[in-house]
Amino acid sequence: MRQWVDSRRLLAVAVGLSMALAGTIAVHPASADTDPPAGTPATMTADALPTWQINGVVWSAVTVGDTVYATGNFSKARPPGTNEGDAAEVGRGNLVAINIRTGALITSFNHTLNAQGLRVAATPDGSRVFVGGEFTTVDGRPRNHVAAFNTATGALDPNFAPDVSGVVKAIAATNTTVYLGGNFFSIVDPVHPDSRTRLAAVTIATGAPLAWAPTANDGEVTAMALSPDASRVIVGGKFQVLNGAPKVGVGAVNATTGASAPWSSTPTPKKSGSSWSYPTEFTVYGNVLYASDEGNGGHWFDGRWAANVMTGDLVWLDNCYGASYGIFPRADVVYSVGHAHDCTSLGAFPETSPQTWQRAIAETTAATGTDKGAPSNNSSYSGQATPSLLQWFPLVSLGTFTGQNQGAWTITGDDDYVVLGGEFPKVNGAKQQGLVRFTTRAKAANKIGPVSVPAAPVVTALPAGRVSVRWQSSWDRDNSRLRYEVLRDDGTTPIGSVSGDSAFWSLPALGFVDEGLAAGTSHTYKIRATDVHGNKVTTAASTAAVAQGGTLSSYAAGVLNDGAANYWRLGEADGTTSYDWAGGNHLTTGGGVSRNVSGAVSADLDKASGFNGTSTGTAGSGLAQTPTDFTLEAWVKTNTVRGGKIIGLGDKASGLSTSNDRHLYLTNNGKIVFGVYPGAVRTLQSPNSYNNNAWHHVVGTLSAGSGMKLYVDGALVGSDPATTSSRPYTGYWRIGGDNLSGWPSSPLSSYLSGSIDDAAVYPTALSAAKVAHHHGVGAGTVTPNRLPTAAFTSSCAFLDCTLNAAGSADTDGTIASYAWDF
């Protein structure tokens, strides 16, 4: 048990369950952690469900009831997990139907298109399914580029046979009318041909052409959708002119007359030479149109966007680069397929070298922030609203059938399932060609666990019977938060655990400090990474660490007992590492950091570190988890008139960061500044100067409940209750220097010339009383409280336990509350 705690608190520790009550408590079996956290919508799992496969490519799919209708370019269908030529393989000519709940082939739906299908859509009542494409016959019967099927019987509709002159790539339907788009210029009625320019409408009853004839003047139509009241048809494609007027890529027309209707946003940028963007899929959900775009040309828009279907007003647009081919919104999540490779726009994964791709992703349907990247070429938008990327990254393998080296081309589903169609040969490393299903956590086996086994932890023996255990995060395809259990020696029961968020592009360093070890004993450690469903991977064992003797000072014990997530004492005698006594995220120090400098804390033999005021005089941690509520704490001594960074978070471990937040720095005249960046600069500055070559205790706190506060030498010197958040990003803790350009009262130097001691980061905002207490103990003006003695009795019957802590005592105070940690 750590040494310095408020004498009014009691810590009782057991293994197994966790809850907090006072006095006597009854303990019951606990459920798994909530995943995702409150306020974040849950996605489908990344578990690939067994689904009948095809031997080519699926271009489009639609769900009607329990049936998924898929069209493309293929000739066979076969059971899940089998190879081509399997004995159970059956013929299917570019059209197939499967059961969305079982993945089984629907044998009663068996038709052959004589060329590939490119789009499939259904009526709102689900009675008809329409297929468009390059074909001219269905089951040997003439059907020029479009056909209808009765979903109740599975039969080809004998009365629906429009004669469309060219390829159909887009379809939208009411219960009486079918709207067609593509690259055609006439549609034949029973008497004579009528000219059309890539858009037409026919009746469902007979397939007879209607007078509706808007024009996509200079480019093919690739996507169509209807407003919920069927009054508007939203048209998307490669055109730059619609109905004779400039309208780039997307516009609205009246569903009865074909006349242009209002559409306010311009998500698709105007064509320039051989570079352009165009919508690939429209899906209406509620009153919002969700769209995916493909871009041709470097840095050309190929993300996703959402707009009000009745007005065209933009809801959000993401510049997550990598062509997008299909989009499917459901509840609070919108799923899409393509090959995303740079999601800087969403504050997520950046471009890598060599490039890596995510061929299926999920985002929030609602806007949650603003664009964090540069606009795409010719874009109308910069800093516009964006959604959030969610943790859903099934591994969809690259296919070769089309020669375009893609994975999934389309996505559909219902409330409980999503279905991907494409040319992929595998999903999550297992055979699954062209079609695959995913479902909710409640219905899945939930067997997709942590993706990688972290390297063996790095261990460091610290004084006072402590061993620092440090490792890099793993990540999981459908869980952002993992639990890391620390195993000592050959034990299988964890001695402790740490939870952390991670993703494939963000793998923070994590740590745990084992304490209370007998001096001279040798220990090894393993880390077991576990997701919320119990899937786990375990590292190899660390090298051995031999525990040291000694005791902690009252100040150091107090920092640890008050919950520091990171604590750099900066008292090492030599070397380029400053150890993290709380979390294992050690600092790497530059050549301009001197050791064995006289320390700040009274009655503490631990030393401090000196920083020379240049780019070599700084220290940086590994990638860190970034708290929302937090406290920054340090002791600083300087007589500089050039200012400099004391401690803060940056996006680089060394050199000058381009993004900074959560920091304390000095101005040229020695005033202390505490700053955060929740979308705009917010700072507090001390009224007095502190560059008098004496030690000063500086603390910045932020919480959602009380805002920003700045303390110097135990006293509150500034507050801002309106600033309750900071920038949400992962970064590196920097001590002694980092970029301060653009911050208020920016000093001449970003690097501090002076001494720093006992720097700490807490995942909570310390109270004013605790800040004052820390300063008093460090300055030698306050005597630390002695620890209370924790004691309890227990009585258990089966899985119910009653615990009573009445036997606990405090020799220099009274126990006011009890905190139980099981």
Q: Count the DSSP helices.
A: 2
The low-confidence runs, each spanning 5 or more residues with pLDDT under 50, are: 1-34
Range of strand content: 35-45%
Fraction of residues in H or I helices: under 10%
Biggest beta sheet attributes: 8 strands, antiparallel
Strand-pairing-aware structural class = mainly beta
- The total count of strands amounts to 67
Shape annotation: elongated
Distance between the termini: 14 Å
Q: What is the rounded Rg?
A: 32 Å
Instruction: Name the average pLDDT.
Output: 91
In words, what does this structure look like?
The chain has 822 residues and is mainly beta. The chain is elongated. The chain has two helices and 67 strands. The two termini are 14 Å apart.
Relevant terms:
2 helices; mainly beta; 8-stranded antiparallel beta sheet; 822 residues
What would you say about this model in short?
The protein has 822 residues and is mainly beta. Helices cover 2% and strands 41% of the residues.
